[in-house]
Each structure stands twice: as C-alpha cells, then as structure tokens.
Design a protein that fits this description.
Length: about 500
C-alpha cells in the first residue's frame, strides 16, 4: 500500500529524517515511536505529501506520490494532525463535512445524499453525532479530537495518518478509538499509520512498530521485538522495565521512578511485627512488600503490607469465602487491596515461627499446620474437590531483593521442605493410607522487601533456598507436632 525508500528530508536543508525505508501493507496498523524531536511528525508530513523530501521516494499503491493530484491524494490519505487548541466557530457537522471535499465532483460541489449519509455515519462512529450543531469552541479538547477524527474518516481514506491520536482523550475514549481503528483495519482494510507516545498502547494495538532515534530507524519489527527493555531505555534515556500484559500477549513497559533520597529507613521484617491472638495472626509491614501468594485475598503477584492468617471454625461455610474474607479484612480496618488474607481451622497459638539470618539477608517464616485434611498429591484423584478448612499455611518474609525466578523457586523449595516434614512425621492421607504431601487447601506466601541483597535464585542449594528449606521444615515439624498434641488431648 505504501512504500518508502531511502527517504531523507527536513527543514532549511537540515536533515531531520535520514535514510528511512519501510513499507506498510493494506489493513496494517503501523505505529511510529521515538522520543521528542526524533522526527516522527516530520516523517508523517513527508508521507502525507505536505513536506517534500530532499531525496528518496514515496509510492502509494505502486505509484510515486508526486504523480497524484492533491484531490486524488486526499481520496486515499487522510491526516489527523497533532491536536491544536485553536477552534474556529464552525459547527461540528460543518467541520466533519469538510472531509467530503475530496469526493465532490465538478465546479458546483453539490452535496449528495451519500455525502450526508457518510458524515452522519462517521459522527456516530466517533461519538460526536450528539454535538452535530454545537460550535467547535464549545467542545472539550477530547471532543474536538474526535471531531477531527470524524473529519478524517469522512474522507473515506484508504490510509489514515494519525499524529498522537489519543492525546486529550480520556481512558475510555482512548480504548474506543483504538478498538475502532483496529476494527476498521480488519474489516475494511483501512491502513493506519500512527505516531504514539504511549508505548503500551502502541504495543497493544499495532501489528508492527517503527522506532525512530534521531531521524534514523533504530528498530522496525513486531511490538515484542521493538519494545525491548535495553533498546527503549537507551533510545528514551530512561529507566524502564518490560512486563507481560495480564490478559493479552502484548508487552507493557513500566517506568521505574527514582526513589533514592525520599526512601524512609527500611525496617526489618522480623517476629517483633507479629501479632498473635485467638482470632488471627497478623503482620503489618511498615512498607509494602512484593508478594507472590495463594491467599484467599491478595493472591497472585502484587504489593501488600498487611498479612492475616485468620482462624475459622471447622464448620466455616466456604461457599463465598473470598468476599466474606474481604469483608472481614475491611471490618478489621484494612484495605483488602493491601492485604494478603488466609484462613485456617488450626488454633493459632500452635503456630510456629523462626527468624533466620545469613550474610546480607534474613527471613521470617511463620507456619500454621493442621493435617486432619492431609492429601497425598500423587493419589489425590480419590479425593472429592470440595474445599474444607484444615490446612498448612506458610508465610515467608524475606529482607532482601528477589527476582521473579527466586520467588518461584522459593515457593518450590518451601513446598519440598513441607513435604519432607510431613514425611518425617509420617503424616498419612486418611483416604489412601500413604504419606501425605500437604493438605487440600494449603496456602503459601513469599513476600520480599525488594531492598538490600539481591537474590537471583531460591532453589534448594542457594543461600535463600537453604534458609527457606530449614525454616519451613523446622516450623512445619513444630506446628504439626503442636496441633497433633492438641488433637490427642
Ligand atoms: N517547521 C519546522 N521548521 C524547522 N524545524 C522543525 C520544524 N518542525 C520540526 N522541526 C525540527 O525537526 C526536529 C524533529 O521534529 P518533529 O516534530 O518531527 O519531532 P517529533 O519526533 O514528532 O517530536 P515530538 O515527539 O516532540 O512531537 C526537531 O528538532 C524540530 O525542532
């Protein structure tokens, strides 16, 4: 659809765009990225024919751009410029109607039924039909942006060039606009070439991205390839981290703020922060901790500062345990979003905890363990899937920085140490009679301050794994021992 070859150009004989070549296919959504001043708008001006290049060529549908008249070009390409705050006293409908100019034939430019139909259709699509008679200056910045888009669409272009289209739009209109653009590329074959400042939106919606660095192509590929941490950090000169999107296979780039200097003094997470009552064991951390857990509340990966292991009776109704637990946390005066909450039928005075230190880092392990509901994971097929309280809950608080890999390996190490303790104590699965590996509702938490020594790994023979293995094994032995004594009494 569009082919750019060795394009060089700029202003007053200064090269802004240098030797740029790429092509865009019909129906493609193509994003242009780059820091301020890297030449994105200049490139778009050349592609739209507003600015003549010094050298190189641009061809559209196989013909040089120079061979098209202005009117012919306007029937193929529509441009949505960077938003301007100027607003003339035209009505919305009049403004959108200007987009039909390229399609009007002859000297008298008669307004046809088709023109009218298309203008209303694009006003509906962009959500501005309700303002049809309003004057532009009466609209908000985002509403005016949508009017400009409607005007561009009224041209019925085959290629839509957009300079920062989501500028001034609130979240829901950003999503609507990009969903619509994506839909049009798929359904009507519209080709979209758009400048983005928001790398995450570009990564979510574009088929391919072009990254400009001081007027040259730094990278042009799929979003996942272009949005590489080191590359973006280098081109944008900032600290950035790449993460997977939680729902779709698209990269998300997050800024890493400079927090040095305004950090409050780090407080050690140790047993002095534990509060144990008949109702719950609680740890309130002075700072947010990076967590990976399977709690009833706060499960998955996150940042939390309150940790509650709550005692519930054996007859606790588990049918809506998540919302019941969230209500309970609120009643205690905590925000469920900041809290990891677990439940246990074990008497909390039977909890076991230990604080272990190594060169440069330390961990606090807390275990509550009831094994009446023990299961051998290798034979769990014979059990029903019903959830019953009676469980081993393991908390591990690490004073140190963990990689994601270390979080996962720490959980593996703890699970192995727990299984070993159950083996040592000959805890049996009551249904199979074989040695149990856990219970059917065990929960685990690993939480790290993310300050201090960095631990890349948490496997069994790593410094972190050694402390976890020992701490979880010892605490599980002790907690199961205490709870068994109580059962005997
Ligand atoms: N009309 C102009 N005359 C002279 N120089 C210009 C003109 N427009 C832009 N420039 C210069 O060209 C360079 C690239 O500008 P351009 O607007 O293409 O960058 P951009 O990547 O779109 O930046 P931004 O992200 O800030 O919108 C800048 O150094 C700018 O000062």
């Amino acid at each position: 659809m569009l082919k750019i070859e060795q394009l060089t150009g700029g202003y007053s004989q200064t090269d802004i765009i240098k030797d740029v070549s790429f092509s865009v296919s019909r129906g493609e959504m193509f994003g242009i990225l780059g820091p301020n001043g890297s030449g994105k708008s200049t490139l778009l001006k050349m592609v739209s024919g507003i600015l003549a290049p010094y050298s190189g060529s641009i061809s559209i549908k196989g013909k040089p751009i120079k061979s098209y008249s202005a009117k012919e070009l306007a029937r193929i390409i529509a441009v949505l410029p960077q938003h301007s705050s100027e607003a003339f006293s035209y009505s919305v409908k009049e403004t959108v109607s200007l987009g039909r100019y390229a399609h009007q034939e002859g000297w008298f430019h008669t307004w046809s039924g088709k023109d009218e139909e298309i203008v209303w259709q694009v006003m509906e699509q962009t959500g501005v039909a309700m303002f049809a008679d309003s004057l532009l200056h009466e609209l908000s910045g985002g509403e005016r942006q949508r009017v400009s888009l409607a005007q561009a669409l009224a041209q019925e272009p085959e290629i839509l060039l957009l300079d920062e289209p989501t500028n001034h739009l609130d979240l829901s209109y950003q999503k609507d606009l990009l969903d619509n653009l994506k839909g049009w590329t798929r359904n009507t074959g519209l080709t979209v070439i758009s400048i983005f400042h928001d790398l995450n939106l570009a990564g979510l919606y574009c088929d391919r991205l072009l990254l400009l660095d001081r007027g040259r192509i730094k990278s042009m590929d799929s979003p996942n390839e272009v949005l590489r941490e080191e590359q973006i950090a280098q081109v944008y000169q900032t600290s950035i981290q790449k993460q997977p999107h939680p729902k779709v296979p698209a990269p998300q780039m997050v800024l890493l703020p400079e927090t040095e200097g305004n950090q409050t003094e780090e407080k050690l997470i140790d047993e002095s922060l534990l509060q144990v009552s008949d109702e719950y064991i609680m740890l309130r951390s002075p700072q947010h901790l990076r967590t990976m857990s399977s709690g009833v509340v706060g499960s998955g990966i996150g940042w939390h500062r309150n940790f509650i292991n709550r005692h519930v009776g054996k007859d606790y109704d588990c049918s809506d345990h998540r919302s019941e637990m969230a209500d309970y946390i609120k009643k205690l005066g905590f925000e469920p979003g900041e809290t990891v909450g677990m439940m246990t039928a074990v008497f909390l005075e039977d909890a076991s905890f230990t604080f272990l230190k190594e060169e440069g880092f330390s961990i606090l392990v807390v275990v509550t363990a009831g094994v009446g509901n023990a299961v051998d994971a290798s034979r769990s097929k014979v059990h029903s899937s019903e959830l019953v309280p009676g469980t081993i809950n393991i908390w591990m608080f690490v004073n140190g920085e963990l990689t994601e890999e270390a979080f996962i390996q720490g959980i593996m190490t703890a699970t192995e140490a727990k299984a070993k303790a159950l083996h040592e104590l000959m805890v049996r699965d009551p249904l199979t009679g074989t040695i149990a590996t856990g219970t059917s509702t065990d929960s685990i938490l690993i939480a790290a301050t993310q300050h201090g020594s960095k631990m890349d790994y948490g496997g069994t023979v790593t410094p972190l794994g050694k402390l976890i293995g020992r701490g979880v094994y010892d605490c599980t032995l002790e907690a199961v021992g205490k709870s068994r004594k109580r059962v005997k009494r």
